[in-house]
Specification:
- The protein is of the alpha+beta class and 249 residues long.
- The chain is 27% helix and 31% strand.
- The chain has six helices and ten strands.
- The strands form two sheets. The protein has a five-stranded antiparallel sheet with strand order 1-10-9-6-7. The protein has a five-stranded antiparallel sheet with strand order 2-3-4-5-8, with helices on one face.
- Helix 2 crosses helix 3.
- It starts with 5 loop residues before the first strand and ends in a 6-residue tail after the last strand.
């Protein structure tokens, strides 16, 4: 989809393991854009990955999307507040969304990235719990947030609905005046993208910009369904966003 200041697209596909078991994709994603009280655009991207071992994983991921978007809208009204309050609000809203189901049955990772307006610079705030990966390219280079923590096996991760602490959330908080490009990835893709290939992978996402707005999502879905890493059975989600530089809207 395209707005004057924002281009974005994304897709989720069920991995081979879930396809063989006739199960739906347990990833979920969303991109939202709204105007703040000063009529300036706020952009929010979210990716949630329900833990496959939990009976209500898909419900938990969908609840994570709703909770993250609601928390972002509320927190963005007071952007000088600590980022920890965004996280706390998201956690509470997610538990309300999944109630009365036990939170442990709905466990999901959560990745949220907010782009807030400013007079000369945008503020970029990212929060990740679990093994999702955010890639942010600014005029100062590429920064990554999230990914699988050292010492965890491929089927282990931190998540909403599991025991964790505030400092288990990984946080990114930066300001930039220039163009932004962002990738948000679930672990079904992030696990296959080593650090040294992040820049190339961002460029691969950029190639979809040349397609028509309606064709981008379809083309991306086909690419994810034909994922070239043999033996990778997990669900896969990719969200791409590009925001023009300040003064270019």
């Amino acid at each position: 989809m395209e707005k004057k200041d924002l281009l974005w697209f994304g897709a989720s596909v069920a991995g081979p393991a879930h396809q063989e078991a006739n199960m739906p994709c347990q990833d979920a994603w969303a991109v939202g854009r709204w105007l703040d009280d000063e009529r300036q655009p706020v952009v929010c991207g979210v990716v949630c990955d329900g833990l496959g071992s939990r009976p209500l994983a898909r419900q938990g991921a969908l609840a994570g999307i709703r909770a993250a978007k609601a928390a972002a809208r509320q927190w963005a009204r007071a952007p000088d507040a600590p980022v920890s309050l965004l996280v706390r609000l998201l956690e509470v809203l997610w538990r309300l969304e999944v109630a009365p189901a036990p939170a442990v049955d709905c466990a999901t990772t959560c990745l949220i990235l907010l782009v807030l307006p400013g007079s000369e610079e945008r503020r970029v705030v990212g929060c990740v719990l679990g093994d999702g990966l955010a890639v942010v390219e600014t005029i100062d280079g590429i920064k990554t947030l999230g990914g699988r923590l050292p010492g965890l096996f491929s089927n282990e991760t931190l998540a909403l609905g599991t025991v964790h602490h505030m400092n288990d959330w990984q946080i990114l908080d930066l300001k930039t005046p220039g163009q932004l490009r962002v990738l948000l990835l679930s672990d079904g893709i992030a696990d296959d993208v080593p650090t040294e290939h992040v820049a190339s992978f961002l460029s691969w996402g950029n190639e979809f910009e040349t397609r028509s707005p309606k064709g981008r999502g379809r083309a991306l879905r086909r690419a994810l369904e034909r994922w070239p890493v043999p033996g990778h059975t997990d669900d896969k989600t990719l969200v791409y966003m590009r925001l023009e530089g300040m003064g270019q809207q």
